[in-house]
Amino acid sequence: MATFSSKQYSWADMTISYGGRILEGVMEVEYKETKEKEYLYGRGAKPHAIVHGNMNYEGKIKVWQSELEAMTKDAKDKDINNLSFDIVVAYVPRDNDGQIITDILKNVEFMEVTKSMTQGATNMEVELPIMFLDVKRQA
Fold it and tell me: What does the alpha-carbon distance between residue 67 and residue 23 come to, in Å, rounded to a whole number?
């Protein structure tokens, strides 16, 4: 019988790596999996079933400008939109009282890069939308 843990992870428990390097200047990560679903209608006004379609994987990562510049150095033609890589998101409890949870986002690609700075800002934060092919869970 599987044991259930109600351990809740915090931002401080998370480690995000890309290209074998832990990202120190990461401020946010979001990833989602979507499965297309719709009702199957036939006789009458009520649906007879729910049918399933394609999967979709997308999200975003927010990093310091210095992290963006480090990624740019690795990119062909210095364009990070040319990169394809895995992102490893590991939830590692600091108190050794919970399970280590690892999600691997497979074949991640950035969709766009927008740099922006406002008056009074002390550093640049860059939000990078991503798309990827799958999430491999290693729990």
Answer: 7
Rounded Cα distance, 47 and 133, in Å: 31
Q: How far is CA 42 from the centre of its chain?
A: 39
Q: Which pair of tokens denotes residue 65?
A: 């400008």
φ, ψ for residue 74, nearest 5 deg: -80, -15
Question: Going from the N-terminus, what domains does the chain have, and what CATH number goes with each?
Answer: 25-138 (2.30.110.20)
- End-to-end CA distance of the chain, in Å? 16
**What pLDDT score does 61 carry?**
97
Cα distance between residue 46 and residue 112, in whole Å: 42
| Whole-number average pLDDT of the chain | 92
Residue 86 DSSP SS3: strand
d(CA 97, CA 2): 17
**pTM of the predicted model as reported, rounded to 2 decimal places:** 0.86
CB 86 within 8 Å of CB 23: no
In this structure, how many other beta carbons lie within 10 angstroms of the beta carbon of residue 16? 18
From residue 62, give the alpha-carbon distance in Å to each of 2, 45, 104, 119, 135. Answer: 35, 46, 17, 20, 19
Cα–Cα distance for residue pair 131/125, rounded to 1 Å: 20
